[in-house]
Design goal:
Belongs to the glycosyl hydrolase 18 family. Chitinase class V subfamily. One of its GO terms (biological process) is carbohydrate metabolic process. By secondary structure, this protein is an alpha/beta fold. The protein has one domain (2-220): Glycosidases (TIM Barrel, Alpha-Beta Barrel). 31% of the residues lie in helices and 22% in strands. It has a six-stranded antiparallel beta sheet, with helices on one face. The chain has a four-stranded parallel beta sheet with strand order 1-2-4-10, covered by helices on one side. Helix 1 packs parallel to helix 2 (42-48). The radius of gyration is 19 Å and the shape is globular.
Amino acid sequence: MDNMATLLTEWRAAIKAQAPNLILTAALHFRPMANSVATFPAKAISDNLDWVNVMAYDFYASSWVRPPYVTRPHAALNDPTGAKVSGSSGIAAWINAGVPANKLVLGVPFYGRAWQLVDPNNHGILAPATNFNDTLVKGGTPSYKQIKDFISQNDATVVYNSSYVTNYCCSGTTWVAYDDTQTIATKVAYAKSNALNGYFAWKINQDLNWALSTKASQTWGS
């Protein structure tokens, strides 16, 4: 992390000297700790980057959490369990570390993460699961378009959870957490009301007829 601080400082100096119109950004972890022993150099980041794209997604996936598995939203704005694994807790942690709100951009996913339910009748958040589900797409990360097709083709149950700020859908033992238009609108409104520099999506080509992109743009406004 010391080397990262040095790199950013030297990079900014080179831009000032050679190409002052260039914008320097980075997409970073949802909170300013890369792991339990490595903390990002917040001062160097604040001093040298034009903004930070905060990757407020991929909090949970079966490939990097330990069993027993339960269904979890991978990009919740809030975490009512108190574990502080959420977009809002990550933004707060970056601000507390010294990176101002106007240099932070909130990331939103245009894809979901699918889990395999143990019992199709128990399908809430934190319901028992066996592992990821690749019914929709291999690897368990379907695009928004694939999720909407799955809902339509399987008459899937759709739920919006305002405590977490996430959507999920399920049919049989397939359970998918994702962001729909209501979730996107709530997240973008959060970014705007907290004076963040904006929002970004990963990734645009996973949208369906620009539904999420349009809702985000309309919510942010001018």
